[in-house]
Amino acid sequence: MKKLLLFLFLCVVTAVQAQLKPDSVHSLSPVSIRATRLKDFSIGMKVDHLDSLTLSRFQWASLGELLGTHTSLFLKTYGEGSLTTVSFRGTSASHTGVLWNGFSINSPNIDQTDLSLIPVYFFNSVEILHGGASSLFGSGNIGGSIHLKNDAEFIKKLNVTASATAGSFGNYSSSFRILVSGQKWQSISGFQYNNFENKFTYHGFHGEKLTQTNAGLIQYGYIQELNRKISDSQLLRASFWYQYSDRNLPPSMTSTVHTQYQLDKSLRTSLQWEKNFSHGILRARTAFIDQNLHYVDAYEEYLSGVESNIRTKSSITEIEVKRYFGENLKISSGGNFEYTVADIKAYNGERRQNRGSVFASVVRTFPKINWTANFNLRQDVIEDYHVPLTPALGMEGKIVGNLYGKINLSRNFRVPTLNDRYWQPGGNPDLKPEKGWSQEVGLVWKWDKNPQKHSSELSITAFSSTIDQWIIWLPQSSGIWTPDNIQKVWSRGIEWEGSTHLIAGDFVFNLSENYTYTFSTNQKKTSSLDNSFGKQLIYTPRHNASGELRVDYKRLFIAINQGYTGKRFVTTDNSAFLKGYALTNLSLGINLKCKKQLFTAQVNVNNIFNKEYQTIQYRPMPGRGFKVSVIWNFAR
């Protein structure tokens, strides 16, 4: 029956596209298409774009460090160089999508991505979508998503960048990047190497001074992007990304075992072909992702310890057609197929999973009232599951003067991970998909009468989402932990964001502020003794904020960044919590230009006031630390 419904759905979409007659031709400039599903069909949602200036200052950093400093998202980290995940709007890390070139890179076994292993240096575009987007990107995109890519330019250009960074705690990194392009092709090559000892001091339970041990990280990676204009209307893009990390896992403050380490290797490739027509675009693309994790917990006093090999391979193929009907209407439809193989010892054998989906989107602009409406519809087909149809409706436009409005409503879902289903002991093959609805409404005020010298923007967004059949692992009478669909969560709150750009003589001021209030509570009792009912979810701060002031004066620059994370409960009944903390960071540097070369010397001071804090209980974080970077850039 489901196959019949999908077939009919595709037939309807095709028929609509065939029957509609364009009222005028929508001309497209040759191979100038940079639009993605994120840009075209996220009407009514909040999307943040991290600017190139910010990315250039964080060449040495991981994606986790960047987001933790320049957004109001809560980054959950187990220590310097250790696992780092992000949560949006009171959801979990498994409800966050991380996409590279439009493909999900979340590990299929846990549906998460470790942001500490992703270098900022490899990308010139980092975009953050807040809110549920299952209608655009499928399972798991409930809280929000992070989108990584390199934008292509077809102009004659040569740009070479090299950098070296040395910091406190025995940390060093270096990177190299070369961009070469012409009118018909472009090549981007990047390499990065990190060697972090992470040897910082902290105070133990009784005030004694201790040194973090077994926290070293050696990491290197290479990325290659090739873009080729086949003709004025065709574009071919090929991408290759390899990442290797060898890291020791630091113990918690309650542990005396210092022999855990982990190897992470990932190979990600993608190929995309685009054909532009006078009335639209045809896009076909494919990707192969191979991720390998080797974890060892070896006790010296025993003959054997714990060892785990986790390897997943995924191939994804997608085709999409976008058609324009005049200047004010565009329709997109397509489908994809994903095949995953997981070779994990704890599954008692190799596991395979097939996924497919069909999707359609319509965007209509109403020029007379300066508003745009967007409707998305997606149906996924996943082996062994009944997956709900996921619609989304969004609108945005001008209210009056410089005031704009946004509104979005969407249905979202997440299927159980492979670990949830197959891990032995404990896996539950009878789990159901998580599902729910998300709503948001926002106001945006813009002032840019003279954007060359002064521009400002303020936005406030109220959001609410429910997730039913939330999967959690609980201990059974046998002592074995098992997952089940037993929780319902309601998350609601407010996001506030502001930015100001001002030029006064030789001074350039850039001010940005972010604040999120999140109230995320359990709405269902698992038993009569369940004290979590109505309580805030653990490790979900109600208050999270960040702000930065950057001042440029001729060749000099200085930036002061202030972040705040509120208290986080560490028990489901909210009886115990970690205190909130505020961190202040400082960056200052100088730019020296010599003909076609630019030299930048930069000093970063993190945690200026040497605050002791933990984002996860019993996982110490570093105090005051310094980083000195030298960056050389050649362009012609």
Topology diagram in text:
Layout: H1 2-19, H2 37-40, E1 46-50, H3 52-57, H4 63-70, E2 74-77, E3 84-87, E4 96-100, E5 103-104, E6 125-130, H5 134-137, E7 144-149, E8 157-167, E9 171-181, E10 185-196, E11 201-203, E12 209-211, E13 217-231, E14 234-248, E15 260-277, E16 280-297, E17 306-324, E18 329-344, E19 351-366, E20 371-382, E21 390-400, E22 403-414, H6 418-422, E23 434-450, E24 454-475, E25 481-504, E26 507-522, E27 543-553, E28 556-565, E29 568-569, E30 577-578, E31 581-594, E32 597-606, E33 625-635
Parallel strand pairs: 4-7
Antiparallel strand pairs: 1-6, 2-3, 4-5, 6-7, 8-9, 8-33, 9-10, 10-13, 11-12, 13-14, 14-15, 15-16, 16-17, 17-18, 18-19, 19-20, 20-21, 21-22, 22-23, 23-24, 24-25, 25-26, 26-27, 27-28, 28-31, 29-30, 31-32, 32-33
Oligomer: single chain
Structural class: mainly beta
Number of helices: 6
Give the percentage of residues in beta strands: over 45%
Binned, the helix content reads under 10%
For the termini, the CA-CA separation is: 60 Å
3D shape: globular
Mean pLDDT: 90
Describe, in plain words, how this protein is organized in 3D.
With 636 residues, the chain is mainly beta. It has 6 helices and 33 strands. It has helices at 2-19, 37-40, 52-57, 63-70, 134-137, 418-422, and strands spanning 46-50, 74-77, 84-87, 96-100, 103-104, 125-130, 144-149, 157-167, 171-181, 185-196, 201-203, 209-211, 217-231, 234-248, 260-277, 280-297, 306-324, 329-344, 351-366, 371-382, 390-400, 403-414, 434-450, 454-475, 481-504, 507-522, 543-553, 556-565, 568-569, 577-578, 581-594, 597-606, 625-635. The strands form 5 sheets. It has a 22-stranded antiparallel β-barrel. The chain has a 5-stranded mixed β-sheet with strand order 1-6-7-4-5. The chain has a two-stranded antiparallel ribbon with strand order 2-3. The chain starts with a helix and ends with a strand. The model is unreliable at 1-33 (pLDDT under 50).
